[in-house]
Amino acid sequence: MVFCTEKGLPIDPRNFTRHFDILLKRAGIPHIRFHDTRHTFATLMLELGEYPKVVQQMLGHSKRAVTLDTYTHVSLDLEKHATEKLNQALVERKIPPTQEGI
């Protein structure tokens, strides 16, 4: 067993869930299922700019596609960051607005 009670017995899943919910509340984190922590971890790591290959290895996936397609989600922050990067690239290149008819 990876986790057990103080007496060495298996942890009752309901007790684990109750304890997890208490920890979330104490930390001021919105309620999520324990299962969702892997998805949250993957998404946050990418938001922080970590390389997908590193996140893949940390989650123990054999392929990067599993990590990116199943465990990560595009958050509003990621979308905003991507549009800011595009805007900066366009400003730096001083690309003129398109002309009608072209």
How is this fold's topology laid out?
Elements: H1 13-27, H2 37-47, H3 52-59, H4 64-71, H5 76-93
Provide an overview of this structure.
The chain has two domains: 1-31, no CATH class; 41-93, no CATH class. By secondary structure, it is mainly α. The chain is 59% helix and 0% strand. The chain starts with 12 loop residues before the first helix and ends in a 9-residue tail after the last helix. It contains five helices and no strands. The chain is elongated and about 75 Å long.
Offer a few descriptive terms.
102 residues; mainly alpha; 2 domains; elongated
Give me the Rg, rounded: 21 Å
Major sheet description: none
Structural class per helix/strand content?
mainly alpha
Give the SSE order as H and E letters: HHHHH
- For the secondary structure, the number of strands is 0
Helix content: 55-70%
Low-confidence segments? none
Spatial gap, N to C terminus: 67 Å
Percentage of residues in DSSP E strands: under 5%
What is the 3D form? elongated
**Average pLDDT figure:** 86
Number of helices: 5
